[in-house]
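Sequence decides. Consider this:

===
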Amino acid sequence: MIDILNSFKSLIKLEQVHIDNNIFKLHYKFTVIIFIVFSALLTSKQYFGEPISCDTDDQDRKQLIDMFCWIHGTYIVNKASKDDLLAQIHNPFDHSIENDWKNHTKKLMNAITFQSKDEIIWQKYYQWVSIIFCLQALLFYLPRYVWKHWEGGRMELLVQDLSGPLVPPKWNQETRERLLKYLMNDNNGHMLYALHYSFCEVMNLVNVIFQIRLMDWFLGGQFSLYGVTIATIQNLSPMDKVFPKVAKCMYYRYGPTSTIENRDALCVLPLNILNEKFFLILWIWLHLLAALTIIFMLYRCVVMCVPSLRSYLLISHSRYVWCFKVKLMIKTINYGDFFVLDHLGKNLNPIIFCDIIDDIHRHLQDVQESYKTLPDDVIDV
């Protein structure tokens, strides 16, 4: 298990250059780590032994029956009106004379005939939990993979050796001019860059909602309200219904006269001790993650629609930035340019970021001045 976890150390490692936000990281870092750790624990026999062990009268075939029940699944009998039945036969003689033994006998007969109405619930998910967790980890990493492919290391090239606490010697006039030229002559490439990132954020939201639906289907419709049910029901835990620790298995074989014989087996499912906790944690986390993602996407829409808010975001990256310069600049640049500057502000040295803002402001002023000096006939053209 340690070997498996060591292969994912890159997820825990802090990045030198940030190309996304903290909500994005919750999807491809924290959530992926949760699924990988859970899957590793479920497949670790050194801590929890065999995943299934069945007790049957045919001990010579125990290993075969264990394998059969592991492949074909186990089941429990859900007595839906168990509480009502116990209430009926509890203290049966505490009634008036006309409701004595006759009524009590009728209630006991109802208890006997109730078995035909019992619902069989299969645990066919049991052997697939660790595989599903690995699949979900891959799906949560998919938006990150797509974004890294589209991003292409652009931000890392822009901030290379410029993110430290000290201003490096390479930050000279030539470097400033090259960076300014790139920022001001991108021909709407920054807008496409920002739209790609927004698309990956939408992928995160769609994915987490899909994951909740997937787990609900995987558990036979028991996941969507799993946490709510546990919080509201006190006397009969829904964990025992969804994740039983002991279940039945029916094994069929051919007898000496070629007739089909069935063997009853009572199977212990030790991994359900973990499953019931894991799925409760996932229920809480996935719903919380979906809510946080929705809130942040609404915030993203507000930033797109309200330019004045963008200036405050850029100012927050450096205390050396003049507010009036940023506000004038925001009126000229589009959302894509702001998006790139915002990411630069998260990665660059604050003094260097302030210099970039000054250079952009000066460049925009020069463009406006040169535009004013043009003859009227040129402007009309």
